[in-house]
Specification:
Length: 356
């Protein structure tokens, strides 16, 4: 399985310039604590027909593996099987898919924090962490298309998200509380409080966060958040992806469900530069967008800009001649399959854009 840990990853997964995969599932772990069972974890589904694995050979612009031809922050590292990975901080994250139209990238990231306990309630050695904690210095921000999962017994998770590390006032706060009411509780698929809860992320644009936990007291007197033979973890997850693969109203014993978590799919939004289209354009005579007739739009977060194909065209505005004329129906249901790129204009070098 993929890992976010230093220079470690796995085989590539899905999709070049397509919409974010829905209901994608857990990456299985090969080693589980006692009484844990791998069938309770959701395996990744089969790749939909027609979708390609994202590799160093087909990763779409503005991403690329050639450092001198790629914008800073969008350079991917090639794994042993040509899988495309992003370097963020001290870790590398395998890319699952990139959406050019949506301006986001889906990566596999391990938990932010995780502690597993043996049968006597003692913490075991590190079981895999490495999820991104800061995106400062990158073109990425934490997307509100994620949820923050609090996984374990009797604890309240509080996450403060900031525009930049060191900011005194958070952009917003996400919080949720888990409980375990009996010595041998069960857990449901819903993840709505019984040993598992989800905190929504209300805004885009955050580049850093702080995480804290508070223990809670339950009816059986337990308040330390530790369950023998289970794990406690916090991790980002695509909000359309289930935490567990239970069906319907089915419940499972807690000690079978709270297994070590490995890499999960999470979403990062991206933008070019750190200023608006108008200000960025004032620094150069070149077109901001590589596809000269494309449209520059301000990023939703307010920092940086994005490129869009003009009306009537689809494709990748960051790629040379990437915007193709949209198919127009001929009235017989077949459609006109001829697509003509518009003329290409000169584009700024990566170095020029990096200073904007």
């Amino acid at each position: 399985m993929p890992r976010g840990r230093n220079r470690r990853s796995a085989a590539a997964a899905a999709a070049d310039a397509v919409a974010r995969p829905l209901a994608l599932a857990l990456a299985l772990v090969s080693t589980l604590p006692r009484a844990a069972h791998s069938q309770d974890l959701a395996p990744p589904p089969l790749r939909p027909p027609g979708l390609r694995a994202t590799t160093c050979d087909n990763v779409p612009e503005p991403f690329g593996s050639r450092r001198n031809e790629t914008l800073p922050g969008f350079v991917v590292i090639c794994g042993p099987n040509r899988e495309a990975m992003l370097s963020i901080g001290e870790h590398e994250y395998r890319i699952d898919s990139v959406s050019v139209q949506g301006s986001y990238v889906v990566i596999f990231a391990e938990p932010i924090t995780q502690v597993c306990y043996d049968g006597k309630g003692k913490p075991t050695p590190d079981t895999g962490t490495g999820g991104p904690k800061s995106l400062d210095g990158t073109p990425f921000t934490f997307s509100k298309s994620n949820k923050l999962v609090n996984f374990g017994c009797n604890r309240t998770l509080v996450a403060n998200f900031f525009n930049l590390p060191g900011d005194p006032i958070p952009l917003y706060t996400a919080s949720c509380t888990t409980t375990c009411y009996t010595p041998n509780p069960n857990i449901s698929r819903s993840c709505i409080g019984e040993a598992c809860c989800e905190a929504s992320m209300d805004l885009n644009g955050a580049k850093a966060f702080s995480l804290s936990f508070e223990g809670t007291t339950t009816a059986n007197g337990t308040g330390d958040g530790e369950e023998d033979g289970t794990c406690s973890a916090a991790f980002f997850l695509d909000k359309d992806e289930p935490v567990f693969n239970f069906s319907g109203d089915e419940v499972r014993p807690l000690k079978k469900a709270l297994s070590p978590q490995r890499a999960r799919r999470m979403i990062l939004d991206w933008a070019i530069g750190s200023t608006t289209c108008d200000r960025a354009q004032s620094y150069t005579f070149d077109s901001l967008c590589k596809y000269g007739y494309g449209t520059c739009v301000d990023a939703p977060s307010g920092a940086g800009y994005l490129c869009k194909c003009p009306d009537g065209y689809d494709g990748n505005p960051y790629d040379r001649d990437g915007c193709q004329e949209r198919v127009v129906s001929q009235g017989d249901g077949r459609g006109d399959r001829r697509r003509q790129p518009k003329p290409h204009r000169h584009s700024p070098s990566p170095a020029a854009v990096a200073t904007i």
